[in-house]
Design goal:
The chain has about 500 residues and is mainly alpha-helical. It contains 16 helices and ten strands. Helix 6 (about 145-155) crosses helix 13 (about 390-420).
């Protein structure tokens, strides 16, 4: 009797434990479902935030740029606040200004930095020459003046400064070249006069490149669009000091609309920001292909999982997986249970991945108009394929950037150097970039031969005389005879009468 009661209590206790275990399993299952639902909601919220329109706001200015006790006009201007509200009326799915810290971090990646470095080097690679034209003064020799200006450009390291100038502009959207005048440190907020009263001889100290993170507009016109200075700062705060715009050579090669200028801290759009979607696609594609190559083969073993699925210990499954992995190679013996296990393997085809990766990489060159052979070192494939045509088009594009953005600033620098060296400005002195495309020796020889044949024919028919031929040769820099003196009189060959002497007689 006692044994029966003991067995009955034992069975009741086991039943209660079984019920508790079932309740625990149900609670764990519900917890896993709740956790899965929470993760799903977080994923959906993340996707919704990514698809959410971008809001245009005032830029975040470095705290040391604006003097203490003052507020940046970009932040407090009511016209700017109205512009932000107006722009944000419609959904903006394009990114707004992503900020200087983000751009600085992005510039550490070679995928982003290659374009600014390549463009800056190409725009200053061949550099150019200081030249002179006749501005009304008869037979004035400007050779010494041009030579001195050229040496001053080298002394102030203008070529390298311009390269940095371009690179910083392409990274951040704006770059400024500060003009430093001796004795005017306390007059930086006043306009700089380009005459002998504003700059005296020997007062030009040099130039310095300023990244846009250290400056923000101090004064600008945001109320009258009919004026030339509409949304063009007349003064800047440069790390707590107010500087007139005349003393800063501001470079912006990709300006934004007036309504967006305050949001971009009166900078243009950075080349890195234009490249961002292309680089992200390339990096995502490269990572996906790398992951696919690593796990292109999926090996599986269909085995008994009842123990782990029923809540038991996973030791047996772990031991089986470890044993399977240890002997799974081309030389080992694979052992499987004939009744309970099955081996399978799936291989992902890798054909075509190289084309997808190449296309994603090549698209990064689109925003900057840079040929692949210049940007990535990728040469065209195929029979008789070459990139000469693309290079010529790219050189034309670089020349347009040089003339539109660099040339005005270089000519201003030349005027500053003339005032510093001579005390006056000769308007006949100018700068000219050297073309990037250069003829090889064979092409130069063919051009010279054609020019010689043309000159000979014109001389034989009496269209030109010998003095004009010599003048043409002396002014042709590509000619081997550019050194000759066109004013030197050459005696006629022996036995050939002198036409001018006979005419005088």
């Amino acid at each position: 009797m006692k044994l029966f009661k003991w067995r009955k209590r034992l069975s009741e206790r086991e039943a209660a434990l079984a019920i508790e275990r079932e309740k625990t399993k149900q609670l764990e299952l519900e917890a896993r479902k709740a956790d899965a639902q929470e993760r799903l909601m977080q994923m959906l919220m993340t996707e919704e935030q990514q698809a959410k329109p971008t809001k245009i706001e005032a830029p975040i200015i470095h705290p040391s740029v604006v003097p203490k006790g003052q507020v940046a006009p970009v932040a407090m201007d009511s016209e700017c606040a109205g512009a932000y509200a107006y722009v944000n009326l419609d959904p903006q799915f394009y990114s707004s200004f992503i900020g200087y810290p983000t751009l600085a971090v992005m510039s550490q990646s070679s995928d982003y930095r290659s374009v600014p470095e390549t463009t800056a080097k190409e725009m200053t690679r061949e550099w150019g020459k200081v030249k002179s034209r006749n501005n009304g003064k008869d037979n004035e020799d400007k050779t010494d003046r041009v030579a001195l200006i050229t040496s001053e450009l080298e002394r102030f390291n203008i070529c390298d400064l311009m390269r940095q100038h371009i690179e910083i502009e392409m990274i951040f959207g704006r770059s400024q070249l500060a003009i430093n005048i001796r004795g005017q440190e306390d007059k930086c907020d006043l306009p700089l006069l380009l005459n002998n009263k504003g700059i005296k001889q020997g007062d030009l100290e040099g130039f310095a490149v300023i990244e846009p993170i250290w400056s923000t507009p101090s004064t600008y016109n945001s109320t009258d669009p009919s004026r030339e200075d509409f949304f063009k700062p007349s003064k800047w705060f440069v790390l707590g000091k107010e500087v007139h715009s005349d003393r800063l050579l501001t470079l912006i090669m990709r300006p934004v609309s007036d309504i967006l200028k305050p949001a971009y801290n009166f900078s243009g759009i950075s080349m890195l920001q234009l490249m961002k979607p292309y680089v992200e696609r390339w990096q995502r594609t490269a990572d996906s292909i790398s992951d696919l190559i690593v796990a292109f083969s999926l090996t599986g073993l269909a085995t008994d999982m009842s123990d782990i699925l029923s809540g038991g210990s996973a030791t047996s499954v772990a031991v089986r997986a470890q044993l399977f992995s240890q002997i799974r190679d081309n030389r080992g013996l694979m052992l499987t249970d004939r009744e309970k296990e099955e081996f399978f393997q799936f291989n992902t085809p890798l054909s075509g991945l190289d084309a997808l990766q190449r296309q994603a990489q090549e698209q990064m060159a689109a925003p900057s108009h840079t040929p692949l052979v210049k940007l990535l070192g990728i040469t065209p494939a195929g029979l008789n394929a070459n990139s000469d045509g693309e290079i010529r088009v790219y050189y034309d594009y670089i020349a347009s950037l040089q003339n539109a953005h660099l040339l005005p600033q270089i000519n201003t620098i030349i005027k500053l150097i003339q005032l510093n060296s001579f005390g006056d400005i000769d308007e006949g002195i100018y700068f000219e970039f050297t073309p990037l495309y250069q003829l090889d020796e064979k092409e130069i020889a063919e051009v010279n031969r054609t020019d010689a044949e043309t000159t000979e024919k014109l001389f034989n028919i009496g269209a030109i005389d010998g003095e004009e031929v010599r003048q043409s040769l002396s002014t042709n820099e590509a000619s081997k005879f550019s050194f000759i003196d066109p004013n030197k009189i050459i005696p006629p060959p022996f036995g050939v009468p002198d036409y001018e002497s006979n005419r005088e007689e």
